[in-house]
Write a structure and sequence with these properties.
mainly alpha, Rhopdopsin 7-helix transmembrane proteins, single chain
């Protein structure tokens, strides 16, 4: 008998389908809600919709790979992350740009750090062997740099000095997601390659993490973009 498209007892497969639908719904919501935002906040909501939209496309493929083979869709995950994680990092720059003049150098620092984090992680997982742990360490260092920048670096200082009440709340929530939510990815990498967790457990955890780190990330942007006075600086200037 041919394998069914989705086995009711395949909880990993079920999680792929749930996240696929959730990403599509979030994309539609963020796009429609752009009309409620003003000025540069519209761009932030556009990027939020792009993040979940790209993720939805890749989850359609990932769920098929899992249903057909029962194997982790590693390549599709990294293709998704290589597109969506830099976009999420760009959101920090967009939030700051909405309320202050921000140097382009800050954008490039955050973007390059996110790409280093992802490319090294991909190389470590695909090539493995002698590259497995060195690439893991380099990726973690790039992630730590991003955390430093949004908690104590230039990005943090601009937010503290120029931010509105809405932008400060959004910035604070987003950096918690980047710190705590994104921690699941290196933890999964470590547990997966030390044999401490099964592929089933890791895929469910990754799926739930993507749900939080992409959809909740976008909801934070939406809340700030549609709040009263989102476009006013801390000093009262537009």
């Amino acid at each position: 008998m041919d394998k069914v498209l989705l086995d009711p007892s395949d909880y990993v497969g079920v999680s792929f389908w749930i996240i696929s639908a959730a990403m599509v719904a979030a994309t539609f919501f963020f796009w429609v809600e752009r009309d409620r935002a003003e000025g540069k906040w519209k761009t932030s909501l556009t990027v939020a919709a792009m993040v979940t939209g790209i993720a939805a496309i890749h989850y359609f493929y990932m769920r098929e790979v899992w249903a057909a083979t029962g194997e982790s869709p590693t390549v599709f995950r990294y293709v998704d992350w290589l597109l969506t994680v830099p976009l999420q990092i760009i959101e920090f720059f967009l939030i700051l740009s909405a309320i202050a003049v921000v140097r382009a150098a800050l954008f490039w620092k955050l973007l390059v750090a996110s790409l280093v984090m992802l490319v090294t992680g991909y190389l470590g997982e695909v090539e493995q062997g002698s590259l497995l742990w060195p690439m893991f360490i380099i990726g973690c260092l790039a992630w730590f740099y991003i955390i430093y920048e949004i908690f104590a670096g230039e990005a943090s200082q601009i937010n503290a000095n120029e931010g509105t009440e809405a932008s400060k709340k959004a910035f604070g929530a987003l950096r918690l997601i980047v710190t705590i939510g994104w921690a699941i990815y290196p933890i999964g990498y470590y547990l997966g390659y030390t044999g401490s967790a099964s592929p089933d457990v890791l895929n469910i955890v990754y799926n739930l993490a993507d749900f939080v780190n992409k959809i909740a990330f976008g909801v934070v942007i939406w809340a700030a973009a549609t709040s009263h006075g989102a476009g006013q600086s801390a000093s009262g200037k537009a």
